[in-house]
Amino acid sequence: MSLDNTQSIVEDSPITSELIQKYEKLFTLTPEKMRSIVDAFVETLKRGLEQYGQVVPMIPAFVFGWPTGEETGDYLALDLGGTNLRVCLVTLSGGGKFDIKQKKYRLTEEQKQMEGSLLFDFCADSLSAFLESAQAEGTIKAGAELPMGFTFSYPCQQDRIDHGILIRWTKGFGNPNVEGFDVTQLFADSLKKHNVPVSLTALVNDTTGALIASHYTNPRTRIGVILGTGCNAAYAERVGNIPKMKDLGIPDDTLMSINCEWGAFDSFEHKHLPRTKYDEIIDLTSNKPHEQAFEKCISGRYLGEIFRLVMKELIDEGVIFLGKDTSKLNEEYCFDTAYLSTMESDMTPELLTIVSVFSQHYKIETTLAERQFFKALANLIGTRSARLASCGMAAIVKKLDILDEGCSIGIDGSLYDMYPGFKERIHEGLTDIFGEKGKNVVTHHAEDGSGLGSAIIAAMTKTRKDKGFFTNL
Q1: In the chain, at which end, N or C, are there fewer CB atoms within 10 A of the end residue's CB?
Q2: Which residues form the Hexokinase N-terminal domain (predicted)?
Q3: Is residue 272 part of a domain?
Q4: Tens digit of each residue's pLDDT (9 = 90 or more) over 31-86
């Protein structure tokens, strides 16, 4: 949405139509460009299925088939996410029904960088406190050892459901002595240290959990996507289409959940994504340069920072905030992506909500022209994010060859759930890519993958008799 579609810039403003067109050109994705991204994405997905060690690793999750909807019992789920640590008690009642009790613990930036063992000690201690409270309330019996799904939303190489070696941290984490180690063992050591009575049954990526949980309540679901602090996707692939697993002896027609870790698409190569200089600055100043290129253009962690970098450029050029103290905008990541959502939602003639964003958080008075520009810029950045996300979804649909029959995609995360118009922009992107057939692909809010999905996978695992590669068959 350009300013031409909303309000016109007030007269005598340094913000000109030429300036607006500059940013429209930088952040707008044409249908032709989107289709070329999709084609490159499909080839990247195939390479990840063929060989280990690829940039987009296409990690087998060792979750086989779909849930029946009749799983029952009490299960724990612990979710180490990008913003919060969440502990859940999930009661599956059968018939697709469930109940969740949960508690969240905010993660500090210090905790995201502390020694790895201390991070898992914090997880174990939080779980212990949750269990003590649940026992005191009579929700669970004292001393009961419940099966638990551990939702660990970072790329891990798995060779079974209860084991995973961390490939790399994402979402700003950098805890030492975790990459290259089995995270389930690290967590198990902390659970033992804190005498926490649980059975660590399954290691689950939140995107895989979203896929399984969404299929549990909507069997048309074929793809699960996370669009929040980070971004990722999962889907079910026939083992016969995963050449790197051919030596494991799993029947070709078996369905295996694949954790794509698609946030790494176009990392190192930088041939396909239309990266701006702001994307490049974010990449090079991040704790993981040259990694997660796709995620850095899309996810909620980075959109606010892209916006801030544009503002800093315009401040330096003397276009905005003339004579104002802008020192509060010098801090990296000080401009929250939620502010973009707030600005796009402002429908007042004078854009008074945007006035509040800058006056309350940065002590800066704004002109109407500046506020009009900021709303349009937020729209450009948010729309690019949604359209790039639709490219990733379209690539999986094309890889599975299910466009004609159609499917539903379960999506979770703050961008999809809370950013105004994000869902509609995804659908517009799918139509721009596929034409009218793009309407065969619908999206819905994913059921709680890190809680419900993790518990369902723990239940699926618990009910299987085999303990080898066929844990979930």
Answers
A1: C
A2: 20-216
A3: no
A4: 999 999 999 999 999 999 999 999 999 999 999 999 988 888 999 999 998 888 99
Residues annotated as catalytic are 153, 168, 206
Work out whether strand 407-412 and strand 221-227 pair parallel, antiparallel, or are unpaired. Answer: parallel
Question: 392 lies in a domain?
Answer: no
Under the banding of pLDDT at 50, 70 and 90, the label for residue 471 is very low
Asked if residue 73 belongs to a domain, the reply is yes
The predicted model scores a pTM of 0.88
Paired sense of beta strands 72-80 and 59-64, if any? unpaired
* 300, 414 contact by CB (below 8 A): yes
Which residue in 469, 26, 17 sits closest to 248, CA to CA? 469
Work out whether strand 231-238 and strand 255-259 pair parallel, antiparallel, or are unpaired. antiparallel
Task: For Cα atoms 219, 458, 465, give the angle at the middle one, nearest 5 degrees.
Answer: 100
- Give the residue numbers spanning the domain of 204: 60-218+447-463
Given a cut of 50, whether residue 173 has pLDDT beyond it is yes
pLDDT tens per residue across span 354-396: 999 999 999 999 999 999 999 999 999 999 999 999 999 999 9
User: Which is it for strands 407-412 and 72-80: parallel, antiparallel or unpaired?
Assistant: unpaired
208 vs 269: which has the higher pLDDT: 208
- What sign has the CA pseudo-torsion 38, 40, 44, 50? positive
Q: Is residue 68 part of a domain?
A: yes
Q: Any idea of the CA torsion for 12, 18, 21, 22, to the nearest 10 degrees?
A: -110
What is the β-pairing status of strands 72-80 and 146-152?
Answer: parallel
Does the CA dihedral 215-233-82-244 come out positive or negative? positive
199 DSSP β-pair partners: 147
Residue closest to 395 by CA, chosen among 34, 3, 20, 78: 34
Give the number of domains in the chain.
1
Question: Can you tell me whether residue 396 is helix, strand or coil?
Answer: helix
Contacts of 280 (CB under 8 A, 6+ apart): none
Q: Could you tell me where the beta strands, DSSP code E, fall in 42-197?
A: 59-64, 72-80, 84-94, 97-106, 146-152, 156-160, 163-166
The count of other CB atoms within 10 Å of the CB of residue 17 is 12
Q: Where are the beta strands (DSSP E) in 296-406?
A: none
pLDDT, tens digit (0-9, with 9 covering 90-100), for 188-236: 999 999 999 999 999 998 899 999 999 998 999 999 999 998 899 999 9
Task: Provide the 3-class DSSP secondary structure of residue 109.
Answer: coil
Which CATH number do you get for residue 93? 3.30.420.40
